Amino acid sequence: MTDYPRPVIVPALVNRRTADAGSLGEWTNLGFWRGVRRYGEAAQELARRVGEAAKLRAGDVVLDCACGYGDSARLWIEHFGAAHVYAVEPDPAITARITERVHTWGLSDRITVRTMRAEAVVVAEHAPGVTAVVCVDAAYHFQSRRSWLGALAAQLPAGTRLALADLAIARLRYSRLVGSVARRTGIPEMNLWALNDIEPQLAECGFGLDRLTRCGREVLGGFAGYVLRAPWRFLSQPSQGGWRAIGTALGILLARRGKRLEYVTVAAHRLARHGVSATTPPA
To answer: What 8-state DSSP symbol labels residue 194?
Structure first.
């Protein structure tokens, strides 16, 4: 057994080439589905919104935590002008694939791939000079989001930007129902932070909230609708995660009843160290 989550879907199941699709990606996030119907477009749009939340710009050094198959790392460079990206992903089979793709893109001198959990990153060693930290649709799968944020803050200089695309719950009193769905999809219940708990939890860890944007309909509703528009396509591909995709879509619909489950993009920055409590970085 591994101690890290694998993507719900094998990229080949959803990143399909069509006559007008252009280059084929290997995205695995839930996507942002406003005005699009193709998975690759939605997945790229969600990542782009995280980049905007982080205010990525030319010259940035980016730490991309749980980067999937590397498409987001490429986006930070080609769309936002980042100078260098440290792409962190725990599955060695996936990092081998990222390394291969980075070489094909001609970006080996600008993307460094690390095989490790995001929680284990020692910034000075694994991402020196980082100016922004991003995580697209993955932090809720970490062993503990709170510990990860605290360890990061203990190592980052004041002003370092942070952006997440992440799950949230509307209110703590809804956590029992949503927690049951979360357990079935491999999400630790401790990672189900409530909307009104995000700002104080960030502050406790050492980050100041800049902006919180709710987008549950576009992300959760959009992904569920995409999967359930053509369920047989997924049911016929169990080896590529098709059944897990169906289960995730149905779980989203159940947890979204009464708007219990939400999705957000979070923009924050590392607070000045004075008066901030943060956990010790991992050994």
So the answer is: B
